[in-house]
Amino acid sequence: MEDMKKWWRDAKFGMFIHWGLYVLLAGEYKGQKTDNIAEWIMHDLDIPVEEYQALAARFNPVHFDADKIVRLCRDTGMKYLVFTAKHHDGFAMYHSKASGYNIVDATPFGRDAAMELKEACDRYGIRMCFYYSQAQDWHHPDGFEDAKPMDGKDFRRYLDEKCVPQVKELLTQYGPLGLIWYDTPMDMSREDCLAMRNLVREAQPDCLVSGRVGHGLGDYMTTGDNFIPLLPYGKDFEVPATINGTWGYSSGDTRWKSPEKLLRNLVKIVSRGGNYLLNIGPDALGDVPEKSVEALGVIGEFMRLNGESIYATRPVPPYPYDIDWGYFTAKPGKLYIHVFDDMPDVYLINMGNVPRRAYLLCDGRPLELRQRETCEHVHSWRIFLPEDLPRQIDTVICVEVEEQDIRFEEITD
Ligand code: FHN
Prior knowledge:
Layout: H1 2-11, E1 13-17, E2 28-29, E3 32-33, H2 41-44, H3 49-53, H4 66-75, E4 80-86, H5 113-124, E5 127-133, H6 155-173, E6 179-183, H7 190-203, E7 208-209, E8 221-222, E9 237-241, H8 259-271, E10 274-280, H9 290-306, E11 326-331, E12 334-339, E13 345-349, E14 355-360, E15 366-367, E16 369-372, E17 380-384, E18 395-401
Parallel strand pairs: 1-4, 1-10, 4-5, 5-6, 6-7, 8-9, 9-10
Antiparallel strand pairs: 2-3, 11-12, 12-18, 13-17, 14-15, 14-18, 16-17
Bound molecules: ligand FHN.
């Protein structure tokens, strides 16, 4: 388990995939648009179960290509993939024996998307993980439905009939998994949440459990959606995030974040000690929206040249929160300075290390570094950036230092 935690902590970057029957509606049902996230359409527009489940007969995403999606994941520099095996709508996107309401038995598509993704993950060295909505199930009569009262419902029956058998299937049908990504535990008791965690521990002792298993029982903390902690949290955390304004595909959502914003979010999260789980939402044919592919392409290009400044890095203590032009990451003996702004030099004060050399990470070009000692500042470094430097979203400078631990001196007023 400790090895898996280290793997996850070092991986830093994962792909989230929200894909389910809701993509057929793409944010609109019978002429009515939802203004909330698209995978919630069944709940938000009060679509009756019989009407919603009829969508399965139309689900035939003939363009779905697991190999292509996992290559996109790998080429973006992501190390794990979390696929919605069952979201709140209750529809299993894998071959489930516990419920016929699944992608193989209930759709003309008839293929196990989860198995295809898992096989592709194995080909490309990506760790497969499953999202599973353990409490909310809008299809099963006894599942939670958002904040609606559970009066007259038999939640235990839902757990025994559907949830527990399905999680067991996921843990036994697809080989070793990186994570079970539980979500929205609602009012589940600590005992029930513990049982969900233990299911994973018993079947796959090395598989991690997301923070949203409930009652703080996860192997790390999952932040709120798209929420980046202001400072290092001090423990492992993961930020699940969207590229536009929704998780499941919506034809009308154009709130695309720029590649620049996404890449800088990655650096910001990693500099605070967290992982970034960035979502794609394939459409009804199985295609990934072009805007997502473009943005991931930009991040992938950065990661190919600068991945060393992201993977297996740790935050720099104490965290220099008053710098507004970039962020820092570190490894033993190396400080990575992520420069977002266009500037001729970088001036750092109160450095606690003795530098050996500085260079641009993307091409190894040596950089001039001048060190000074003043009465106001213990040590200051000035690093000059070349004049012909092409404009980059994040220019990474690596400074190798004499010590293993990287640190800024405590700043006292
Ligand atoms: O309700 C879900 C939502 O649809 C989506 O799956 C996100 C991803 O983190 N989790 C829940 C809301 O936090």
